[in-house]
Amino acid sequence: MKLNRRTVLQAATATTLLNSPLARTASKDLDSSGYLLWYTQPAREWVQALPVGNGRIGAMIFGGVADERLQLNEDSLWGGGPYDPVNPEAREALPEVRRLVFNGEYEKATELVTAKVMAKPLRQMSYQTIGDLKLAVPDLGEAVEYRRSLDLDGAVATTQFKSDGVTYTREVFATAPDNVIVVRIRASERRRVKLDVNFHWPVPSRPPTAMRVLPDGDLIMQGRNSAQNGVDGALNYEARARFLLDGGTRSANESTVSIRDADSVTILIALATSYQSFDRVSADPSALNEKTLTQAAGRSFEQLLRRHQTDHRRLFRRVVIDLGRTPAADRPTDERVRTSASSDDPALAALYYQYGRYLLIACSRPGTQPANLQGLWNDSLSPPWGSKYTININTEMNYWPAEPTDLGECVEPLIAMVKDLSVTGARTAKTMYGARGWVAHHNTDLWRATAPIDGAIWGMWPTGGAWLCLHLWDRYDYSRDVRYLESVYPMLKSCAEFFLDTLAPHPNGKWRVTNPSMSPENNHHGEVSIAAGPAMDNQILRDLFANTAHAARILNRDPDLIKLLDETSHALPPDQIGSQGQLQEWLEDWDANVPDIHHRHVSHLYGVFPSGQISVDYTPELAQAARRTLNIRGDEATGWGIGWRLNLWARLRDGERAHRILKLLLGPERTYPNLFDAHPPFQIDGNFGGTSGITEMLLQSLKSPSGEDEIWLLPALPSAWPRGHVTGLRARGGLKVNLSWKNGALSECRLAADRDGKWTIRLGESSLPVAIKAGRSHTVRMRDGRLIAS
Ligand code: FUC
């Protein structure tokens, strides 16, 4: 294809070019609501391609002209099969490890952990691509007026160009109600659609077992997943495409379907594996795909699209955000990212915000796998960090925006995963520690492996499962749905029991601490991270114990446990302020002399965010120490590291600093042209951290020390967003919040309650208690510097 510069520029501005009803809607949205990512050239690299997903299956769309590539994913296609890597030697070694740690012999403790405690195999399984669908357009002339886009509100990716006077349009979406990826190719003139279509597998050394056209015309690719780290591949997979033609002819050779002279063609793609659960793998992917395709093919393209968009918009449209718009927003998305450091483009932040919500809807829906390190999108058999679930920050960050931006349903896969972990982790607790309850270390995978992996300095951290439990609690706290709480209480309780059994008495005779553990991935001396009672563990356990006890009180259960949890919580070491005025990361004041003072993890600031244990209002000295820590650590970090810092500065109520950090996140070093977060390479957590951080700048839903719900309005509003509005945010207690502001000050806040409740609304020095009945709403404004009800 040759793109001449002049036509490309015309295409960039010519919204009239898009002549389909769908594309027309999209281009109108571009002007009015800024829901479009758009480009004037096809993707050359994967991080320029555009993602669609229905939670379970997804595609990256390159928008090629004569050669189109759809890189496909199915979320249960991982390496290996059911396995349990817990090391049976661990139990005997752990008492000695504990002794060495309490004795300050960290190197020796690390050596012993390496020799006896780590999982076998030492690494977990990784997420895999299911291959590509390739579309070739034979005999295509020069293409002009090219444009491709992703409409976040419509959840459709569109590629359009002209050749020989004919406008060609391809639309792609992944629909949850019909469980397929839909590709529609059409031309502005009849009988002009020509295509050769085949599946493509990216790793020639490990080819699929079958790639062919079936007698009924379906194109299939079937194979077996890879063995990894000594664990045999146990999954069969199948990708299957069905072709629905409007006019024209179809022919096939061994593995290619050729279409000629059609008015349009719709391709339905179904993807499945034999995975059923972490311990069962006997589903029949061919039968599943056949059924899915037969059902989907019974609907017209328009019906499929309507059902898809109704479903997507039900979630996506719950939140609307406007941070202001400048002419910078008229440019293609990649240009906006490239120049974001120097441009005034508040609409880019809003687009990034909604992109985070779009991505969560697209990669985590009830019944699917949770969002992994790349959400759902991965073109490799050996992606970075296995594209697994790293639960010492990354998986949790993926779910930070879910509750506040009203995507609570999207947390369901995470809750289902915790349920699995409470089974596999109970085996690990028993075999490794001789303890009750369940434990998960810093990573897990499709098979819900829970033993410590990778190496002692990364993996010997027992608090991953406990952190995940915060999300179980938050699901309740935002909804106050007692039946839901009842369903997750057993997991909270047994997670707490593991720590009740394993917390070790500290030699000072006062505290009970985790040992062995670490402050995730940060070495305190040389090559050792192993430690007892790092600040983060104490903070996570304070939350776990408090939330479990709170749940037990609400459910009227386990009075003895409540008492024990309260007592044990008081025996956890308090947060401490070190010699630099910083929040201490460990029990001892090692912070100034650690090998990397700019380390990406800021684990001990968990207490500030996502937890609210440390706050400007109720623990001002600790909040000041957290600030000091952040200043020492510095702003420069990779994607998720920036994402965390953004949320933290918002919680510390520094809007200008938060905005500066956001600018770093949105720049080309940390945001790819398709707005995927760059770790680098791509890791999706920064996207979700970004959406969460922007929310935290506008609204914070916190608790007072006595457990009252407090809502902070515009707590970290930067001067760069003098006017704007956001509607549909959620706060704890089943409250919906709409906010608007002008000249940097609140214009109006509207609160609507799902259930009866009481909240304290706060802004600056002013606070206003409100009681709202279920189904009623309440409006709050500022007058003479005070919040008033109106
Ligand atoms: C944690 C981080 C790394 C990376 C990995 C997936 O281990 O320290 O930077 O994000 O997760």
Short summary:
With 790 residues, the chain is an alpha+beta fold. It has 19 helices and 30 strands.
- Span from first to last CA? 61 Å
Strand content: 15-25%
Strand order of the largest sheet: 1-6-7-8-9-16-13-12-11
Q: Look at the helices and sheets and give the structural class.
A: alpha+beta
Low-confidence stretches: 1-32
What's the overall average pLDDT, rounded? 95
Shape: globular
How many strand elements? 30
Give a list of the ligands.
alpha-L-fucopyranose
Percentage of residues in helical conformation: 25-40%
The biggest sheet, with number of strands, parallel, antiparallel or mixed sense and barrel status, is:
9 strands, antiparallel
Give a verbal description of the structure:
With 790 residues, the protein is of the alpha+beta class. 32% of the residues lie in helices and 23% in strands. The protein contains 19 helices and 30 strands. The strands form six sheets. A nine-stranded antiparallel β-sheet has the order 1-6-7-8-9-16-13-12-11. Strand 3 (57-61) and strand 4 form a beta hairpin. Helix 8 (346-363) crosses helix 19 and helix 14 packs antiparallel against helix 15 (559-571). The radius of gyration is 27 Å and the shape is globular. Mean pLDDT is 95; it is low at 1-32. Residues 373, 385, 390, 394, 521, 600-601, 640, 679, 683 line the site of alpha-L-fucopyranose.
